[in-house]
Amino acid sequence: AQSVTQPDIHITVSEGASLELRCNYSYGATPYLFWYVQSPGQGLQLLLKYFSGDTLVQGIKGFEAEFKRSQSSFNLRKPSVHWSDAAEYFCAVALLTGGGNKLTFGTGTQLKVEL
Amino acid sequence: GAGVSQSPRYKVTKRGQDVALRCDPISGHVSLYWYRQALGQGPEFLTYFNYEAQQDKSGLPNDRFSAERPEGSISTLTIQRTEQRDSAMYRCASSSSGYEQYFGPGTRLTVT
Lengths: 115, 112
Known about the structure:
The complex is a heterodimer. Chain A is mostly beta strands. Chain A has no helices and 12 strands. Chain A is globular, with a radius of gyration of 14 Å. The mean pLDDT of chain A is 91.
């Protein structure tokens, strides 16, 4: 069975500092990988996705992520964090089944931004 | 355009009652997914539909849970004889391509 691990439950960074959120997956083939963000009272918003090709993918809000097959990782990065980035971040892996796309999520990383 | 909507946003019910949670997907989206998210956890897959056909219900925890999408648009997730352990955020997502899923705001269910 596939699984996703987000080792950091909470992370605190200062505004303007760089950010890296870790994600490791366990899957028998090259997966489809996603990062979602969840703000209080909001739904999950897709930040970026990796399907194939260039292993460095750009997303919305200045985020990027790098797929590293050798490390089974898909870490999320941002060069300079803004206070509005404080939220919970989820990494997810897709298992294609019957034409669908069943997502398996990690447990999330709560990001706090200090002003 | 309009995103995925869910209703009600909050539902408090007594143990043993039935509840119905509604999801209205993005217009034209073929696939619709239901997930459940406990506090401090990521969402967990429950079931999904392509058009009106329920393709996978392997995530439904037991036979008290059922879902339907009779006309290939709006979907209802029904929980019969609710128990306290059913308390969670229930999330719906829709997709046109089968790859990117767009989530609604969720329904927070509390069983007392």
